[in-house]
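pasting for ref
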Amino acid sequence: MNIGAYLGIFALMFLIELPDKTMIATIVMSTKVRPSSIVIGASSGFVVQMGIAVGAGGLLTLLPVHVKDVIVAVLFLGGGGYLLFSRESAAEEKGADEASAEQPSTRLREIATAFSIIFISEFGDLSQIQAANFAAKTHELLGVFIAASLALISVSFLGAYGGQFLQRVVPVKWIRLGGGLIFAGLGIYTLIRL
């Protein structure tokens, strides 16, 4: 896989995480505690989840090629459908609820709280599923892990330090629409190649 493919994975993972509940949770948490604690905890949670996702994607590579391609196509289409047809207000509400439920006080507790909120929220999340898809599709587990992890760490920084500003500049609905169209296109492309 070339550097362009890794950059593409980075960009897509970054794009789909922006309108997600975990981004909202990161923004809300950063209004209550030190942004640096949020970045450390949230980034750690994302990296652990990407390890799990890429491992699951690696298991998909053991399936026959046509079966794997059908699963990958369905997951891409599902991700696209989710971004295109789900309400962003529901994701915002869920992220805000999860972040405000915690009341951290010490730096270590702030980091642990951010880690646990992100780690738990990411189970079965669209970004985790798509990281597994990319791993299964490319057979490049380490490259997908690094690209996806860096994208989500970037989202942590953005959410902790500038998320409220970003959402004023780029409406969430446009971010969701772009991500949804990209994933729907990838799903259709995978099905056509079958």
